[in-house]
Design goal:
By secondary structure, the chain is an alpha/beta fold. The protein is built from twelve helices and eight strands. The chain is 44% helix and 12% strand. Helix 10 links the parallel strand 7 and strand 8.
Length: 265
């Protein structure tokens, strides 16, 4: 859904008259200065909403998320990429009110901190996908407890994106690998303390991995790529971008390992 104010007025009327449609999805580029009004109205009239996508709606504020938390307890999926006005409080409210959440995306939400991951893990134990890429307030001292919460409470996880990881320790990633064997996609950015041991644990425990990405993880060596090559037979994508200790030889071997089957025919 997109368009100016008139178009959205029509969408509001249509969705509020049709709970089934409203329960399926809601997405759009919202009209500036009116975003919260529309979302609050939808939340109040469409209590069966299950999936909402508001990527790049930078004008959206916490008021909208609080409204969704209050009126839409059946939410399973939300995506708020680049909604930079959202705060920890509104996401924590969403987590506590919507225990069915299975997929959450808050990429580039620059005001959010690590404690929201802890809240989501504790309250939303059906989580399968979490995406917190480029969340600059993910402060180091809360990282380890938050990732441990995911390991302790969310065994169904298949996709984890965390960046920047700051002082996230290898032990927490190892715990995540042990508790979440269904992982197929992992992305860790700017992990200053992540070591080969973490990557080896992921490769050993998460045999369904199809995509692994490590960005600016300076302690990783060729031992990490060797483990991925040896143990991840389903891998189709692997990136160790700006991991400065890796050699060109190991990266070439990794690229060969991830080559699509079609290339071999």
């Amino acid at each position: 859904m997109s368009g100016g104010g008139g178009g959205w007025d029509g969408c509001i009327a249509c969705l509020t008259r049709s709970p089934f449609r409203a329960s399926q999805w809601l997405t759009g580029v919202l009209p500036r200065r009116q975003a919260d009004c529309y979302v609050i109205a939808l939340a109040e009239h469409c209590s069966k909403l299950a999936r909402v996508y508001f990527d790049w709606c930078g004008q959206l504020t916490s008021a909208s998320v609080f409204a969704l938390a209050t009126h839409c307890p059946q939410l399973t999926t939300d995506s708020f990429n680049a909604c930079r006005e959202l705060t920890d409080a509104c996401v924590i409210a969403l987590a506590s009110s919507c225990p069915r959440l299975s997929s959450v995306t808050f990429g580039a939400c620059s005001r959010l901190a690590w404690q929201i991951i802890h809240a989501l893990a504790v309250h939303c134990r059906r989580l399968t996908s979490v995406d917190f890429n480029s969340c600059s307030r993910m402060t180091p001292h809360l990282a380890n407890a938050s990732v441990l919460a995911l390991a302790d409470h969310c065994p169904l996880l298949t996709s984890v994106t965390l960046s920047p990881c700051g002082q996230l320790m290898g032990a927490q990633v190892i715990a995540l690998a042990k508790s979440c064997p269904r992982l197929t996609n992992v992305y860790f950015g700017v992990g200053d303390c992540l070591t080969d041991e973490s990557v080896v644990a992921l490769a050993k425990r998460c045999t369904l991995l199809t995509s692994v990405t490590f960005v600016s993880c300076y302690l990783l060596t060729d031992a990490s790529t060797a483990a991925v090559i040896d143990l991840c037979s389903h891998l189709t994508k692997a990136s160790f971008d700006r991991c400065s200790q890796l050699t060109k030889t190991s990266l070439a071997a990794l690229a060969e390992h991830c080559r699509p089957v079609a290339d071999e025919l």
